[in-house]
Amino acid sequence: MITFRKSALLKAMVKIVGPEGCLVEDADVEPFVVDYKGIYRGNTPVVVRPKTEDEVAQVVQYCHKHGVRVVPQGGNTSMVGGSVPDASGNAIVINLARMNGIYEIDILNDTITVQAGCTLAQVCDAATASGRLFPLRIGSAGSCQIGGNLSTNAGGTAVLKYGNMRDLTLGLEVVLPDGRVWTKLRGLRKDNTGYDLKQLFIGAEGTLGIITAAVLKLAPMPTARSVALVKVPDPRSAIHLLASAKEIAGQAINAFELISPDAMSLVLEHLRLERAPLEGPAGWQILVELTSGGGQQELDEVLMRVLETAQEQQLVQDAILASSNAQIEHLWKIREEISDAQTRAKGSVRCDVSVPISRVGDFIEEASARVLEIAPDARMVIYGHVGDGNVHFNPLRPASVDAKDFLSKFGDAITEAADGLAVSMEGSISAEHGVGVAKRDELRKYKSKVELDLMRSVKRALDPGDLMNPGKMLPEDTVPYPHKIC
Amino acid sequence: MITFRKSALLKAMVKIVGPEGCLVEDADVEPFVVDYKGIYRGNTPVVVRPKTEDEVAQVVQYCHKHGVRVVPQGGNTSMVGGSVPDASGNAIVINLARMNGIYEIDILNDTITVQAGCTLAQVCDAATASGRLFPLRIGSAGSCQIGGNLSTNAGGTAVLKYGNMRDLTLGLEVVLPDGRVWTKLRGLRKDNTGYDLKQLFIGAEGTLGIITAAVLKLAPMPTARSVALVKVPDPRSAIHLLASAKEIAGQAINAFELISPDAMSLVLEHLRLERAPLEGPAGWQILVELTSGGGQQELDEVLMRVLETAQEQQLVQDAILASSNAQIEHLWKIREEISDAQTRAKGSVRCDVSVPISRVGDFIEEASARVLEIAPDARMVIYGHVGDGNVHFNPLRPASVDAKDFLSKFGDAITEAADGLAVSMEGSISAEHGVGVAKRDELRKYKSKVELDLMRSVKRALDPGDLMNPGKMLPEDTVPYPHKIC
């Protein structure tokens, strides 16, 4: 479809963004058509790299006029193939990396206004340089971009205290599917003058428009940080520990991360660490972090009180309290490297589920039992942000089994068992990773017809030509998938 | 339009909700067609009072089939005429007061699931009885209902710490304009599986469907509460005091309320208090409240540190720290009675604006100057939640001038001056009260064409027949207003 007018398209793009803003050679285009997990490969006639929202608008206007489909792309770190084009080669990629300006930091308003192509790390650094915290904390901070964080409503390890990307956003600028620009770059905490339109674009995975800039909330920079690694009898105890910790430490709790015995042993192998931080068998462990604007000693005492109370309630078997920043970093490194350890180990089935916090223990117990019926030797790599109900439930092949064999034999059954159970517990099959292409057909199974109809109504209302990020998120789409590489 | 088939309509309604669920006599209907401020009066053939979401669905199905318009109504406490029918008599009122069940409190998940007709006070009490806090705090708690709180994205005095109603909501059940029920009564903090549809209905003022139930977030019950009344040189100093307080007290700050000199003298008259809490001329005052899950003495010390630091920076002229619950209640009473004092005084122009927190001082200074040019003797009753940028800017007639004369002579000019200035400072003309009918035509002036188009697209997508709360919020509507009584 695009082929016969490819030269006209390229000419138009070059006219808008200049030759340096257009990538067309295979080698140049490569990083933008393969997802970062190396699972999906698509095609595109051109990767367009605009520098301003006006250039984005002009590109989209052209596409709207000529029926050209558009894949908006930030750091291309989607976990679900959401940021690469499909295999048809009918869609251009608009990559926002060159739109990485910080417009303004308003200290008294506690806001930062940035272009969508800023990396998360860049925004965090700019906030820090102004004595403020931008609290979103996810592993890909150095490469993921704000536009992608917004479009996927990114979560991470500090949602418990600060909320997810939706909660951190006050204003947006969006290029709509017809190329018009909706600008609402305002830093207001209260504004009840009609539908809160920014909510439509946050978490929409680029299917309703292209976010080009945002006003984000900042928080006071914590002055104290206390971290402990805690061994608990089982996940259920962890949830009671959380409830008890909330009563004692309230909003000081910044992170509450679960690590299963198999997740711990995997990451220790990966990091070539001979000793676990806590002695004895790994058991279920919780990384708990408190932060505050007060004194370090005071906060350490609060954490001690949390642990002592939990010990009295027999919710804790062992614990280590980090006594230096180096120790804090070490404990966090263990937690944060689990994901990479898995990627390197190959052959894990990644289920990013959430359930009500009260059901986390039930979920882990029952899902594990079901998986071990399906694949009795699977390593139960389970971790995540259980403080907000989010469990990364990622059964891994035993060392003796080939990764591809394991995935092809058990992958679908494990996914179905975990996702089905989560939904039956009023949970979600994608807590923070989004839908993209990886989860899009599953929606048909787990969403009600009414909900799918509502989603389609919204899509049709804003993007009647189905031009924005085709084939992503909405399950009825007939656009071909990207090729699945592995 | 409705008249000729009124009997059929009534018969159908009685069939669904029973005779006791239908009000038709003028005297019975009266409280449901006049808004609580006594400004707007509408007409309706029937007030329907369903008891279940299924009854709501059946009523709406009937209305959808027969083109009957619907006004959803909770406690009818709208500040902007959003909850009464228009003068045409073409719309039925669906009042949700009888749907006031508390479905579930999940302590470990920190959630409460309630029907939309629960009053806010009822939800707060249920939470308290379970040792949890439902943190929304607004004056009308005893009569406003959760459905209305959701539909207007209610704010109030604790937004600074806990966010507004949008931030407090995890799940919804909604009867759509075609009578289908979208049920998502789940208590998940993370769920990225498609458009976050609940965001559409929160703050939509009943124009996209009827919220029938919700899952709301609870917070740990604070164990300490420290309150001070502080005299500051001017509103600009107040904002610097806030920034300084945030650095010292962080998320402990629960409320930060401004009271202008005229607001203080008005409320003292109203309460027949001879003495103000702080001696000397009233000046600009701030009611600041900290809450925490820790000890009272510790929290008092934090507040003392806030005040001492501010004194060193010459941001504070005088202060009183409440030393008992009775004193705390007294200080809050003064703040909370300002609104009633104004209502009783009659003749105030109520502007509910927000600006970035950093602009609050500029706004108050400049807006006051403009108003005093328009009406040199106006009493500058200014107060509100400046901790979140929300200013109730309500110039009041001088005692010697008749209320109606003042409003007819100056009302529009004052509104235009305040709202226009707020918008020029990237602010909002309705921070928390919503649009209803009172502000709907102003939107035409202050919203961009792109934004109005987007709003209309959303409305058409969900309610193509324009049946839900006609004439509210969307400025292009041709439905007649309710009669303006005064």
Structural write-up:
The structure is a homodimer of 486-residue chains. The first copy, chain A, has 486 residues and is α+β, with helices and mostly antiparallel strands. Chain A is built from 16 helices and 20 strands. In chain A, a hairpin with a 4-residue loop joins strand 6 and strand 7. In chain A, helix 8 packs across helix 10. The longest helix of chain A is centred in the C-terminal third of the chain and has 22 residues. The model of chain A has no long low-confidence stretch (mean pLDDT 95). Chains A and B meet through strand 10, helix 8 and helix 16 of A and strand 10, helix 8 and helix 16 of B.
Descriptive labels:
globular, 486 residues, 20 strands, five-stranded antiparallel β-sheet
Low-confidence stretches of chain A: none
User: What is the 3D form of chain A?
Assistant: globular
What is the arithmetic mean of pLDDT of chain A? 95
Number of strands of chain A: 20
**Count of DSSP H/I helices of chain A:** 16
Radius of gyration of chain A, rounded? Answer: 23 Å
Helix content of chain A: 25-40%
How would you concisely characterize the structure shown here?
The structure is a homodimer of 486-residue chains. By secondary structure, the first copy, chain A, is α+β, with helices and mostly antiparallel strands.
Reconstruct the topology from this structure.
Two copies of one chain form a homodimer.
Chain A: H1 6-17, E1 22-23, H2 26-33, E2 40-41, E3 47-48, H3 53-66, E4 69-73, E5 91-95, E6 102-106, E7 111-115, H4 120-129, E8 132-133, H5 146-151, H6 159-162, E9 169-175, E10 181-184, H7 198-201, E11 210-217, E12 219-220, E13 224-232, H8 235-249, E14 253-259, H9 261-270, E15 284-292, H10 296-312, E16 318-321, H11 325-336, H12 338-345, E17 351-354, H13 360-374, E18 382-384, E19 390-393, H14 403-424, H15 440-446, H16 449-462, E20 483-484
Parallel strand pairs in A: 3-5, 4-5
Antiparallel strand pairs in A: 1-3, 2-20, 6-7, 7-11, 8-12, 9-10, 9-11, 13-15, 13-16, 14-15, 14-18, 17-19, 18-19
Helix pairs in contact in A: 1-3, 8-10, 8-13, 9-12, 13-14
